[in-house]
């Protein structure tokens, strides 16, 4: 249940950063970019330490796996990072 809430919140952040009216405020929000990058890094490391949903070789084979909340987690993080770096040289340099 907590994982679903986290995924939904991440999805909301991705949508908010897709909106030009909110983008500038979120790009300047202290810590958001750093937290997203750190979370992506930790997620990637978790996938390297053991075979799990974050493992790079994980293959999606069935419909039930596609609906698993963690499948799109990394892609949402990458989308958020990309949005936060859009037309923002300072954030681009941080990444």
UniProtKB/TrEMBL annotation:
InterPro entries: Ataxin-10/CTR86_families (IPR051374)
Gene name for this UniProt entry: Atxn10
GO cellular component: cytosol
Protein's name according to its UniProt entry: ATX10 protein
A GO biological-process term: neuron projection development
Lineage of the organism: Eukaryota, Metazoa, Chordata, Craniata, Vertebrata
